[in-house]
Write a structure and sequence with these properties.
Bound molecules: adenosine-5'-diphosphate
Radius of gyration: 26 Å
Number of strands: 15
Structural class: alpha+beta
Number of helices: 16
Shape: globular
């Protein structure tokens, strides 16, 4: 059967076959159960291993890896491009190609600046940024302008473009002291944070992307709140180097003896987002709007990366039909800053968020993030067999398909030409119907297996969907220009058609 017409997660036909084979196995010898296997040689986290086991995924031993192809590959870090090309249609890998376009600080700054220029009111959630050394002069002009015109003395924060865990970060009250170092970015320091018990905080949220062709994404409804360990004071020349006050990274603050570990998730230096939302609600804040704004920020960030990952994905997987099961999925860690007015700001996106389980709160929240993601990704033992059957069917169809020369309508009579066009149209409609059925079944499966996640794209609200489609259309034009016009048109047409179905 053509994979494009198969109904996800399993067709009635296949279900009957599976049932019959189960009944047969009762009378004949017992059938060996196929299990879903994972290759975790490139993963250092015990929490990932225990989460895989919790959802009945079997971890392959080092010695059997060369003998048995795994269903799932888990990489902590960046995956080489060839790996995406090598993957069989039934296999899954926990990264997308080109996700670095939002996960490296300089690329994020560059891409967000482009979107900000095109849609300033929509893309205003990233602090003003400069990529060094190329934008060093622009930074100096801005700093001088602020002093002259606005009589404002902004603080700046300089970070390595590819850094993490607070390494190499410096704050400056005076922009002239900033060095135009290679591979760094400078941001305007957001100096009016929302404080929790007097401490600065940031939020770590987890977003699961299961498909890029077209996009499907989910946001976990809990996460971590990381607190600084010295009470916050407005930045001054004297406190610029107090990293326990200005940075909220766990890796930085755990070095402070004042770091508080607590078994309750609403106390200490690491708390849960759920507990923060309860606290804010009880303090009179509009947490429903805050959560909506956070979802909006995450979706818009994915909109920025969508053209990049879709383009790379199609380049790596040329034969793969749109709407088919994606071989890639990814859990992204979003670091979000809240200001005093409760506006969320995007600080960075991590494509290799830490799955370390130092404390119970880490194991609880991150464990849920991984397990529920694996359920949503829905790797099935039957996928391998189905993939083989699809390959055979496709090969057969190719053999039987009339050759290109016979397809040319030039040698046909007028009525035969008309028949040919009608048949082709019928095939196209059948294909589209197959996609719609597939998406409906996929959505049904997801709705029953969301766990702690909420679907953020495609979203239910029609007005919102239309807004996102318009932003996607701009993003495709900006980032892919006329290079890939036909596929740009076909993906945007898909999103538009989806808006009319809801
Ligand atoms: P890293 O990848 O090294 O963790 P981040 O960009 O996440 O770098 O910054 C580390 C910390 O610095 C953040 O968690 C936050 O507390 C603080 N920070 C970063 N950028 C800003 C900013 N523009 N305004 C205020 N605080 C910031």
């Amino acid at each position: 059967m053509d994979e494009r017409f198969s109904v996800f997660p399993i067709t009635e036909e296949e279900e009957t076959q599976e049932r019959t084979s189960r009944q047969d196995s009762g009378s004949k010898k017992k059938k060996k159960k196929t299990c879903i296997t994972a290759n975790v040689t490139n993963c250092k986290y015990d929490l990932v291993r225990s989460s895989l086991e919790a959802v009945n995924i079997f971890i392959l031993k080092e010695e059997s890896i060369s003998l048995q192809a795994a269903y799932l590959f888990w990489f902590d870090s960046v995956v080489p491009m060839e790996k995406f090309q090598e993957m069989k249609a039934y296999q899954r890998i926990n990264h997308f190609p080109s996700m670095g376009e939002i996960c490296r600080k300089d690329y994020l700054a560059r891409n967000m600046a482009k979107m900000h220029r095109a849609r300033p009111t929509e893309f205003n959630f990233v602090p003003r940024s400069w990529i060094l050394p190329s934008e060093y002069n622009l930074l100096q002009v801005y700093a001088q302008d602020c002093r002259k015109k606005k009589r404002k003395f902004p603080t700046f924060i300089q970070k390595p473009a590819n850094g993490a865990m607070g390494n190499g970060i410096q704050l400056f009250r005076n922009a002239e002291k900033i060095q135009p170092c290679e591979q760094t970015i400078v941001q305007e320091y957001l100096d009016k944070p929302l404080l929790l018990d007097g401490y600065k905080i940031d939020l770590r949220l987890y977003c699961l992307v299961t498909h890029c062709d077209p996009l499907r994404a989910f946001l976990y409804k809990d996460g971590l709140v990381r607190l600084s360990t010295e009470k916050y004071v407005n930045p001054t020349e004297q406190n610029m180097d107090q990293m326990f006050m200005h940075l909220t990274n766990y890796s930085v603050n755990k070095q402070n003896e004042k770091f508080e570990r607590h078994s309750d998730y609403d106390r200490g230096s690491k708390r849960s987002i759920k507990s923060l939302l309860i606290y804010l609600k009880n303090s009179g804040y509009d947490t429903a709007t805050l959560w909506r704004n956070i979802c909006d920020l995450v979706v818009k960030t994915l909109i920025v990366v969508s053209p990049h990952i879709l383009h790379s994905y199609r380049m790596c997987r040329p034969g793969q039909a749109p709407h088919s099961d994606s071989v890639c999925f990814e859990i992204l860690g979003f670091d979000i800053f809240l200001d005093r007015k409760l506006k969320p700001w995007l600080l960075e996106v991590n494509r290799a968020p830490s799955f370390g389980g130092d404390e119970k709160i880490d194991r609880d929240i991150k464990g849920g993030v991984i397990r529920d993601a694996l359920r949503l990704v829905n790797i099935r033992a039957s996928d391998k067999k189905r993939n083989l059957a699809n390959q055979k069917a496709e090969a057969q169809r190719r053999l039987l398909r009339p050759s290109q020369s016979r397809l040319s309508t030039g040698n046909l009579s007028t009525s035969a030409q008309r028949r040919f066009i009608i048949n082709r149209r019928k095939e196209e409609l059948k294909e589209k119907l197959g996609w719609v059925r597939k998406e409906a079944a996929r959505e049904e499966y997801e709705d029953a297996n969301l766990g702690g996640y909420a679907r953020i794209f495609p979203c239910h609200d029609r007005t919102q969907r239309e807004r996102y489609t318009s932003l996607l259309s701009d993003a495709f034009q900006l980032f892919l220009q006329s290079k890939s016009a036909p596929f740009q048109k076909n993906i945007i047409d898909h999103y538009r058609a989806h808006n009319h179905c809801g």
